[in-house]
């Protein structure tokens, strides 16, 4: 490969989609770019073992799980809606995304039709304060929309509520956990044997902690599912569901939540945490929230990090967001292979 050459298409240095496949087209990057169906500005070749890859523009549909009232509560508390958080997080992982947010729980929330879903390379589903078994229009419309997504050729990623909606839409069951509300850090999530070889957990340690907020959990798996991780609180902490041409990856925890966003949730829950016996009083709620923010940002926060047993799996954005970055990589590889097959 000729180092330093500039060609009339753009190719950025990231994790290779498939080094062997890419190498087959080098030093012919123009052919490779056409093979991927990408129209870009220029290609810059790397040196040594650095493998370039085409940066494929991804169109992502973000499905907001909360009703408008709950989103407004978040805004009034100085936070943002979960769909906006998701968009921000995804954009922090890749600068070539085109994100569209929809609000199925809203009375007049417009949703794509089945033949319009093919425009999107991936669909993400946020968390929500709703409970899947408390059936209402806001719940039922999301189950119906998930069924529509799973009936198409789609790649869907869901956090917490998103996982629960997919499980129910696919024929499984979600109920309130008899162990009660889990809010804080989900401890000792263990990747299953199937999960260890799954692309969702590429680069993830076999046992890890994660930010979590949920009462409900999966008790009956749908057809076509595979459990990828679990812990003592919930046997299903991550799942894959294959139905027809669709593929769903979901996690019961929240990789998209950093401790600052989570602190806002703690403050909003406030009295509920006292009523549940999780916090002694409102002063304890505020201390917990403030301590987590300090542990995240304060260079001298080692004492707090030890006090709350906070490791890199929660504190370090790269570690925390691996599931989402792996999903984006999977979307890129899928799109590249689809474009390659279409041009054959």
What do these coordinates show?
This protein is of the alpha/beta class and 344 residues long. It folds into three domains: 6-55, no CATH class; 58-256 and 321-336, Class I glutamine amidotransferase (GATase) domain (Rossmann fold); 259-314, no CATH class. 38% of the residues lie in helices and 20% in strands. The chain contains 14 helices and 13 strands. The strands form three sheets. Strands 4-3-5-6-13-12-11-8-9 form a nine-stranded mixed sheet, sandwiched between helices. Strand 11 and strand 12 (238-243) form a beta hairpin. Helix 5 (137-150) packs across helix 6 (161-169) and helix 8 (259-269) packs antiparallel against helix 10. The two termini are 25 Å apart. Mean pLDDT is 86; it is low at 1-54.
Show the helix and strand layout.
Elements: E1 6-7, H1 19-25, H2 29-36, E2 43-44, E3 58-63, H3 68-76, H4 82-93, E4 97-102, E5 122-125, H5 137-150, E6 155-159, H6 161-169, E7 173-176, E8 182-191, H7 193-196, E9 207-214, E10 216-220, E11 225-230, E12 238-243, E13 246-251, H8 259-269, H9 271-275, H10 282-297, H11 302-307, H12 312-315, H13 317-320, H14 322-343
Helix pairs in contact: 5-6, 8-10
């Amino acid at each position: 490969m000729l180092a330093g050459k500039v060609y009339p298409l753009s190719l950025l240095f990231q994790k290779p989609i498939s080094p062997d496949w890419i190498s087959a087209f080098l030093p012919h990057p123009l052919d490779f770019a056409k093979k991927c169906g990408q129209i870009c500005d220029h290609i810059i070749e790397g040196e040594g073992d650095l493998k370039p890859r085409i940066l494929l523009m991804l169109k992502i549909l973000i499905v907001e799980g909360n009703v408008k009232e709950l989103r407004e509560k978040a805004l009034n508390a100085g936070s943002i809606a979960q769909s906006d958080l998701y968009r921000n997080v995804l954009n922090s992982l890749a600068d070539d995304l085109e994100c569209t947010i929809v609000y199925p729980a809203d009375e007049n929330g417009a949703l794509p039709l089945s033949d319009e879903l093919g425009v999107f390379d991936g669909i993400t589903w946020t968390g929500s304060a709703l409970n899947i078994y408390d059936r209402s229009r806001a719940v039922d419309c999301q189950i119906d929309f998930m069924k529509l997504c799973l009936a198409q050729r789609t790649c869907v990623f869901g956090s917490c509520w998103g996982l629960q909606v997919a499980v129910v839409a696919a024929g499984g069951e979600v109920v309130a956990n008899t162990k009660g509300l889990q809010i804080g850090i989900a401890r000792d999530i263990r990747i299953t044997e199937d999960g260890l070889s799954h692309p969702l957990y590429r680069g993830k340690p076999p046992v890890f902690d994660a930010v979590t907020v949920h009462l409900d959990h999966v008790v009956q798996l749908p057809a076509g599912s595979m459990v990828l991780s679990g812990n003592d609180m919930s046997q299903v902490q991550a799942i894959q569901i294959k139905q027809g041409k669709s593929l769903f990856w979901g996690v019961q925890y929240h990789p998209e939540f950093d401790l600052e966003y989570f602190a806002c949730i703690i403050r909003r829950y406030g009295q509920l945490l006292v009523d549940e016996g999780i916090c002694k009083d409102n002063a304890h709620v505020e201390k917990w929230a403030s301590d987590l923010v300090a542990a995240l940002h304060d260079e001298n926060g080692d004492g707090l990090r030890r006090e709350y047993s906070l490791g890199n799996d929660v504190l370090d954005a790269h570690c925390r967001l691996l599931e989402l970055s792996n999903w984006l990589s999977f979307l890129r590889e899928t799109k590249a292979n689809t474009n390659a097959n279409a041009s054959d």
